[in-house]
Amino acid sequence: PQAHKAKINKAYESVGQRVKVNGWIHRIRNNKKLVFIVLRDGYGYLQAVLTGNLALAKQTQELTLESSVSLYGTVNKLPEGKSAPGGVELSVDYYEVVGWAPGGEDSFTNKVNENADPSLLLDQRHLALRGETLSSVMKVRALWMKYLRKFFENEGLTEVTPPCMVQTQVEGGSTLFKLNYYGEEAFLTQSSQLYLETCLASLGDVYCVQESFRAEKSHTRRHLSEYTHIESELAFIDFDDLLSHLEKLFVETVGYIMEDPVGGALVKQLNPDFKAPTYPFKRLDYKDALEWLNEHGVPNEDGQKFKFGDDIAEAAERKMVDTMGVPIFLTRFPAEIKSFYMPRCKDDPRVTESVDVLMPNVGEITGGSMRTWNETDLLEGYQREKIDHAPYYWYLDQRKYGSVPHGGYGLGTERILAWLCNRYTVRDCSLYPRFTGRCKP
Ligand code: 4AD
Ligand code: MG
């Protein structure tokens, strides 16, 4: 019978039919007179069996690991007790090699060895991406983006695309990547927040999906030099509205992923102990966090007890969220450890209307705040941070022409993936990670 062309996920549903499946040889092994292949096409994995003369193909090195092939054959349901992806097996009656891959010295396995040094593996990232774990994380990543956009659409946000090349900082000058812009100094953007704020008056609530760049000196498991920053800005809200919005974002978006047949299965496979977030998130003020850390004997950066004004660094933050084991809204940070744009709390002007969302295993995955919306206070913020406000004339104008209370946040995509997929480092959650000393391939 004629074979119809099928992607692997469709082949699962073609029991009894003759199909042509294109893909790459993911695994291949001999068993006496049989050759078993696991074919991969980006849609799934398919077990295929070759018998008789066709089974000579492995010995003759015609079929090798990572060769691309077209397999023709009948899809059979596997009997009880035998398992394979989709519960089916392809009985191959004919095949074509499309792009042969070398065996021996130059074989794929020699290039991409899971036990190799991580930096060698990163040199071979273009090949390592063919691995099951990495490709699963990339699929969850795509679903995260898809369902986050669905959430934004439901909430009535409009997507915008701010510039990457800018002349202002958002999160401190020390991590700016400088570039020569036709002889003028410019930077790669650290955050699109300020630009999003300028959109509120004409577009309403907005969001963007944009790469952010940070020349991080710190070599940690959760810092990249380039990461996908999803930022959003909401008008006419107060701090409580901001927290409720964030809570809903995580509960609903993760809910969509877990209900997705592909997404749910991938997350369970990568992260069997994953607990989807539920309402309400635990709320913890910065000053109560310091108390918790001191009570639990967690020292600050200098090995001392925490005192007001100290940064809660990565290790301490993770210790806290891992012990509590639930998402945390860490709120009300002191003004001096936060950026110029954060407004002070009315009941305690030492602290700001700010929030970090902490998740187990990663710590901070989101940073957000209300924004100072009055010009005088904003100028005070620039002065405190010793930033020349001249280049920010356009940002200050937002305070001049019809200012409103507003706030927003930035989500670190790779950190969210590290949490969802239980990865040790954000480097495993980026297609081609950029960090200190790594800019290839
Ligand atoms: O906390 P950050 O620096 O906040 C901002 O940039 C705000 N302007 C965002 C806003 O309100 N629109 O960064 C936001 C998030 C962090 O919580 C973290 O998840 C991620 O971005 N992030 C990084 N991810 C990977 N590598 C880095 N070097 C990161 N720096 C921040
Ligand atoms: Mg932050």
From TrEMBL:
<dbReference type="GO" id="GO:0005524">
    <property type="term" value="F:ATP binding"/>
</dbReference>
<comment type="similarity">
    <text>Belongs to the class-II aminoacyl-tRNA synthetase family.</text>
</comment>
<keyword id="KW-0648">Protein biosynthesis</keyword>
<keyword id="KW-0547">Nucleotide-binding</keyword>
<keyword id="KW-0067">ATP-binding</keyword>
<dbReference type="GO" id="GO:0003676">
    <property type="term" value="F:nucleic acid binding"/>
</dbReference>
<dbReference type="GO" id="GO:0005737">
    <property type="term" value="C:cytoplasm"/>
</dbReference>
<keyword id="KW-0963">Cytoplasm</keyword>
<dbReference type="GO" id="GO:0004816">
    <property type="term" value="F:asparagine-tRNA ligase activity"/>
</dbReference>
<keyword id="KW-0175">Coiled coil</keyword>
<keyword id="KW-0030">Aminoacyl-tRNA synthetase</keyword>
<protein>
    <recommendedName>
        <fullName>asparagine--tRNA ligase</fullName>
        <ecNumber>6.1.1.22</ecNumber>
    </recommendedName>
</protein>
<dbReference type="GO" id="GO:0006421">
    <property type="term" value="P:asparaginyl-tRNA aminoacylation"/>
</dbReference>
<keyword id="KW-0436">Ligase</keyword>
<feature type="domain" description="Aminoacyl-transfer RNA synthetases class-II family profile">
    <location>
        <begin position="146"/>
        <end position="433"/>
    </location>
</feature>
